[in-house]
Amino acid sequence: MTHDGPGGAEDGAADSMENIVPQAFARLHMEGLQFANARIPVDSLAELLRYQQSVLTAATSAWRSAHPNDPVPEDFAEGMHLTLSDVEDGSATSVLERPQARAYEKYNDYYEAGRVDVEQTLEHLHEYLVVSPEDRSKADVSGFYLLDEPAFLNLGASMPLGSKFEILTPSLKDGIEVSSELREMVMLPFAERRQTISDPPKPARRVEKGGEIAGHIIKVNADTRSFSMVTAKYGGIQVRGTYKKDSLTADIRQLLERKEHGPLARVKGTLHFEGERLERLDNVTEVQLLETGKNPWSNRFFTLAALGAGWEDADAQAGAPIAFPALDAAGQILLECESIDRVLPGIFPLTDGGVQLEWATSQRVTSIEISPDVRFTLFDLLTETNQVEEEETASLQDAKDFAARTKE
Prior knowledge:
408 residues; CATH 2.40.50; plasmid
């Protein structure tokens, strides 16, 4: 059995909410007295964050080159959240791992391209350390776009005099040292020159399209038929929306009255973009409510509710927005699981807009798929005997009973 979201039977219930397996990505070596015995001063941890942001900037550039007319996917940055998994002896060598999940597999080539771009840019900058000052001043800096990224420009800035900072990755035979000499003689002067020769920014492309957006509505004006909303994506910005049907005023006011319970709204209408920035909403025709409450799965529901059209594959527009009725039904089943002390399942989006709940161990795989129109597919597999139970039902109570009956 397969599902469209991250995770699978082999991942296990312990990783139920994310099912993320770490993947080795890079090693950052710091050498000096202050790094003896694998110690890392707090100030030097900034280098790890700068490296992560530098690779993300380069990976984002690679994605935009391949998709010039599309906004960067909302979950693109999540796959580049590096984890400090180990600090090796020999001064301090930080081992960084990147989470690997099915949701991010489609971005792996871009993350790898970003890492290689950072390495090649540093190697190219190193070449200018051995040329004359005159030749260095005549160098073509137009291709060093990463110098416009503060995180990249400040790599090594926290390292004390006499210390050493190197980037080691699987694709490099030897490490790349980011020295104070490289920064002061090449990186900083080149960055300053780029500011004087950079082309003026092109006007952002304006686009309008029908769609849906989730977030929290914070105020409404019945006289102007408008409201303000803090979006769940696009950086959590506040945008203004307008509607024409008077009946929507009551729906929106209902959301405001229940704000203390944390309801999430999804509005359907026309979305106006300037570049990748959402400017406003108009012609709103529908407002839906999702009551998540304060439960262990509330943040996961919020993440799924924020998924826009094309979340699975932007090129093929695969992945419908997750239906609120499906999330509501999933919430009822999860409450049932809590009441019977059943381990909570993994919660995954389905490309048709439904939701899947999955419990997976080496002995058993159990899942409940909930369609956008709230029909349930119940599945239970005992791996030792290959005994399978599968049925479809429109009854929420049947789904709850199934969750209770298959509890181990």
